[in-house]
Amino acid sequence: MTPVLASILSDLEIEVVDMRVRRGPGQTCATQTMERILAEHGAQHLTIVLRSIVETENNKMELVAPTIWAVSDIILAHPSWCATTAWLDAMDAIDLSDLRERAKANRQAVKARQAMATMLFEKLRETFALETQPRLV
Fold first, then answer.
1. How buried is residue 87: exposed, middle or buried, by Cβ count under 10 Å (0-12/13-18/19+)?
2. Where are the domains of the chain?
3. What is the value of pTM for the model shown?
């Protein structure tokens, strides 16, 4: 693990555990995922992604690769959303575990990361009032 990732995880009180150990709240074994996001998008982005998970209601168990990737994808696609105080409030209202379970149920059609990102988008767009283009008939 890189020193930068170790520092981010320490600051957020996230513990890395072995894949063979049952994870608890605030624990993860998704170091490769986090290292890749860190390398591709930087420390600030990864910190926002992880805070969006561990500092929201009942989501501390969701430090798993598909969830981390899905939250990252949404933040990259809609950076203005996480720049407001409404971001964590909106994330509080979302049960990431439920989204992941629903995504896993359809994994033969689409990967969990993409399915979760789509479900997150649908839930968050209500809060952030994403303008839709009028239908052209």
1. buried
2. 3-128
3. 0.89
